[in-house]
Amino acid sequence: MRTKYQRVLLKLSGESLMGSQHYGIDTNKLEEYARQIAAIVNEGVQVGIVIGGGNIFRGLSGASKGFDRVKADQMGMLATVINSLALSSALQACACSNTVLTATNMYPIGEYFCKWRATRAMDKGQVAIMAGGTGNPFFTTDTGAALRAIEIEADVMLKGTRVDGVYTADPEKDPNAKKYDEITYQEVLNQGLKVMDLTATALCKENSMPIIVFDMDTPGNLEKVVRGENIGTLVY
Predict the structure, then answer these.
(1) Phi, psi (rounded to 5 degrees) for 229
(2) What is the predicted pLDDT for the residue at 1?
(3) Which residues contact 32 (CB under 8 A, 6 or more apart)?
(4) Residue 136 three-state SS
(5) 49: part of which helix (H) or strand (E)?
(6) CA–CA separation, 107 and 128 (whole Å)
(7) More confident: 60 or 164
(8) Shortest CA distance to 207 belongs to which of 161, 160, 159, 148?
(9) Residue 172, pLDDT score
(10) How far apart are CA 231 and CA 134, in angstroms?
(11) Average pLDDT, stretch 156-160?
(12) Where are the alpha helices (DSSP H) in the chain?
């Protein structure tokens, strides 16, 4: 089936991998995500992935509890590597070829990231899982995802979340919150909407990288997004 996008960067939060648990990785959720990713790869879509690490350790939270901020962020980066290896294993179980690339040199855990390694892997039909954030402290994995999306020249950045788009307020707390079908980067920044952090949003704005925020927890939604169906919220 024809897809709208040929190359995508999929951003997943670490918390999404917890599923119904309070910590760590829910293997059922992991396998469900792997099946969705394998399905779009089988349709010919080139896929790069960045995963957060909040289900294991969040640098900012660690710093608030007395950790040195740089070391806390480095711990958070390692958490993203753990999640990336878990997703790599789940994709392998779905017969979906993939490679893990890390922002700092961690061979043989993963290959050292560079644009050309990632794009070569995707050109071969492999999923490029890009771990370790930007490799620097004080940057979130949202910013890492925005950076990687721009580097690999993705057509779009897909932000898979637990909600079905961007709302005027948190829909889990405010029953009157209204969903946007589309919204500009500047409106996101002006209204302080928590689509991504400010650095990531500004980076996408400056490089004209569109973002689609959608509900990844509904099986089949990832396929619908890459086919161009009108679900989620487009940030442009």
Answers:
(1) -70, 150
(2) 61
(3) 219
(4) coil
(5) strand 46-51
(6) 16
(7) 164
(8) 148
(9) 81
(10) 29
(11) 98
(12) 27-42, 59-64, 69-93, 115-123, 141-151, 185-191, 198-206, 221-226
